[in-house]
Amino acid sequence: MTHFDAATAAVQAALDAGARYADARVMHRRYESMSARNGEIEGLDQDESAGIGVRALVGSGWGFFAVPDLGDAAARAAGRRATAIAAASATVAGPAADLVPVPVESASWSSECLVDPLSVALSDKGDLLVSATGEAHGEGADVAEGLYQIWDTHKWFVSSEGHRIDQHLRECGGGISATVVGDGETQRRSYPSYRGQYGTRGWELVDELDLGAHAARIAHEARELLSAPLCPPGNTTLILGSEQMALQIHESVGHAIELDRILGWEAAYAGTSWLDLAQLGRLRYGSELMNIVIDPSVPGGLGSFGYDDEGSPAAARYAVQNGQWVGVLAGRDSAATAGLDYAGSVRSDGWARLPMVRMTNVGLEPGPHTLEEIIASTDDGVYMDNNRSWSIDDKRLNFQFGCEIGWEVKGGKLGRMLRNPTYTGIGPLFWRSMDMLSSEIVPWGTPNCGKGQPGQIGHTGHPAAPARFTDVRVGVRA
Amino acid sequence: MSTELLRVDLAQQVLELVRVATGGTAQAEVTVQWQALALTRFANSYIHQNVADTTTRVRLRLHVDGRTAAGSTTLTDPASLRGLVDRTVAAARLCPPDRSWPGLAPQAGPVTAGTVDEAIVAATPDDRAALVRAFVAAAGGLVTAGNCRTRHTTVTFANSAGQLIEGAGTDASLDGIARTPTSDGVARRAAGQLSDLDGGLLGARAAAKARAGADPVELPPGRYEVVLEPTAVHDVLRCLAVHGFNGKAVGDRRSFAAIGEAQLDPSVTLVDDPVSPGAIGIPFDVEGTPKRRIEMVSAGVTAAVAHDRRTAAQAGTSSTGHASPGEGSGPVPANLRLLPSDPAGPSGVDAPPSEVDGPAADSSVAAMVAGVGRGVLVTDHWYTRVLDPRTLVMTGLTRNGVWLIEDGRIVRPVRNLRFTQSYPRALEPGAVLGIGTHAVPLPATYEDSSFVAPALRLASWNFTGGASG
């Protein structure tokens, strides 16, 4: 029995039990992570997970059931359970549920991968982390930590409309950090970001990071931060590095344009959105420089795939064009509810979880400047990079973000290093103040996006570049 | 064969495979967890997501030739178990030496079996839908959203030192909001028994808060005296647990916690209690160490922090039974309770009050409000994140209802506020002006945990921004 057979059996059982639509995903994932600390391996975990998840629609009620058993009987039972759950949903029913049409395809897709990360010797991967964290510790970090993670995922998707799609995604990445402990506070520097850089790529991504070359620098910078002056409070011109820009996009644009939030489907937990569908196509989200694209077809992006978990093919679409809000992240049912004609952004984090609206790759198109030009044209401001803390309200409007490091900018030059730099603002006001944007795009990957109940961890990509914002409140502290 | 026997059999099969693969030289521990999880979500007053899954996960950690590795699988056929063992043994042999391996947990005496409610075990989608329907109906026409969860977990642990223990637990929760065009009100409850969940009571409470919070006004940022309701105190406990009373963070000097020091107000006693009747969770950790009741803070004095075997060995003490898979985030007290000022019983857990009028969660909160000259009543916290772990300075926002208090009365709803506040500073000696009498079990937002909190009246809370910036 093939995995397609199991998925087909589950779908048929759901239909036989009364569902008017059903789909099933068989998924098999191998995960590996290794962490090191001060030159020694701290942990090595390898996980294998496989099962089938079935989604059924009865009337306007959805049901989902999953089991870690790929046999025919278990698959059929899962289909029947999903339908029974959907029938219970229909007893507290909402408006009629519909699905926007998507092409019915039989297809196979694999992500690009030059070096299979699971084939790289554990000893080589361990040596990399041991060496980098050992050097950072030796150069003054009280706690030097390193981490890599690898996901190797096969999916087989079948729907009652006739989809039959298999995909193979290989994702990996890693990073290092240095923490120093001072009198009453800690400081941290990371490379390339706290949890590292990730993509739907092979081990070549980690090789390119060259973690060891940055170990001493981050240790020295963390130590230097302990005695650096605090970021002064006030309103000023703010320049953000590309890694912090990725976080800014993720939190204040990516989540805000999720259609399930806009429709109120996440109201009690993740929250809603300040965006109103009545303003789609008319609302000014940011300055003319702001062009945000939803694009799961970006090669190597952490939010890349061939097809989403409803069988919609990867396609690029503007979310914000020349500063105007024009698109959302949608699924087949949410799009139908909203009266839109596109889906393509529904994913689950494993066979045991319901596919839901998620970010794919949501990022900036390049601007006309360089970071060097942005700094050179700034008389008085602050430059910050590398996220340290992030908090935003349930409408994705009021944010306060902290960075690991900042520098004064005076007379077009970087000045003193600043510690505990924070900034705060209101999303659309902040984005409307963006007056310079670099062309130096980096496709940052975020492997830890939480959403849903039960909780799911999503992988998202965020092409981002340094940018400048005016009249921003910085230096907020307790 | 019963499912319990199957799990024991699985654990022993894996230990035997390890023995054969390593010639008996490995120290090995195996955890077999079976879980049936069901969660019914509602939004816009109807059920829009409704899920369930039944999962078995086998986790193996072994130490061989001075090296350590761990692995897990959801596949339990013989070939997959052999694959798990082979991969993990191979991985361990390729790893650098593990010089801080703490050894296996010794055989333990009798272990509490855990608490199982047969109604939760048998709960159907229709049972959950009935609770949701009652919540929605009690909101009196307001738009509602939330979820109802039931969970049944059994765990078998075995190690090559002869430890073999089993435990089981059930829990259920109902967590929802009612909404007006300008406000949300929340009511939530976790329970070890399904019969403790009252959809009508919680729906009415959420609606009362939402109506009392309609048309809020902006309040200038600044330091205010606050009354934090149990839902907000839950976040305070979670952050203290994760970042403060975490043996790894303490060892790294990334925590504020210092044993023996009077760090919090004398009125504050914090207990981690995973074993009292009604407690939620499995009564031993993934290293097979039985859990027990531990006072983390006794009358304001930090008395203990959570340890697994590795952090305990490094600190020169013994494990408190707080090991978690992966080890990375360190041992965290997952059943932290702030003891109420007038505990209902030895566990300090109360039945939820049944009164539903007005913005205050219950009469205990209302009594605390009556003592405030000028301050803020906060229902809930949202998206709290650490600015500095050592001082535990957090930033976050209020959610689900905030009100201005003047002369002991709630005078008007205010819009959500951002705060930037050190949690230990907010609880320092002299800063706690009152602790509520009702300690309510609340469902965890993130981790597999259960915190129980009464309300808190605090002298000062640093609000650093309003909803508009």
Give a short synopsis of this structure.
The complex is a heterodimer of chains A (478) and B (469). By secondary structure, chain A is of the alpha+beta class.
Tell me the layout of helices and strands.
The complex is a heterodimer of chains A (478) and B (469).
Chain A: H1 3-16, E1 21-37, E2 40-58, E3 61-67, H2 72-89, E4 106-110, H3 122-138, E5 143-159, E6 164-181, E7 186-191, E8 197-199, H4 204-209, H5 215-226, E9 234-240, H6 242-254, H7 259-262, E10 292-294, E11 317-321, E12 324-325, H8 332-338, E13 346-347, E14 356-357, E15 362-364, H9 371-376, E16 380-392, E17 398-410, E18 413-418, E19 422-426, H10 427-432, E20 434-437, E21 442-451, E22 456-464, E23 467-474
Parallel strand pairs in A: 4-6, 9-16
Antiparallel strand pairs in A: 1-2, 1-5, 2-3, 5-6, 6-7, 6-8, 9-23, 10-11, 10-15, 11-12, 13-14, 16-17, 17-18, 17-19, 19-23, 20-23, 21-22
Chain B: H1 3-22, E1 27-43, E2 46-64, E3 67-73, H2 78-94, H3 118-121, H4 125-138, E4 143-159, E5 164-180, E6 183-191, H5 199-212, E7 222-228, H6 230-244, H7 247-251, E8 270-272, E9 294-298, E10 301-302, H8 309-315, E11 336-338, H9 363-369, E12 374-388, E13 393-406, E14 409-413, E15 417-422, H10 423-426, E16 432-435, E17 440-443, E18 450-453, E19 456-466
Parallel strand pairs in B: 7-12
Antiparallel strand pairs in B: 1-2, 1-4, 2-3, 4-5, 5-6, 7-19, 8-9, 8-11, 9-10, 12-13, 13-14, 13-15, 15-19, 16-19, 17-18
Helix pairs in contact in B: 1-2, 4-5
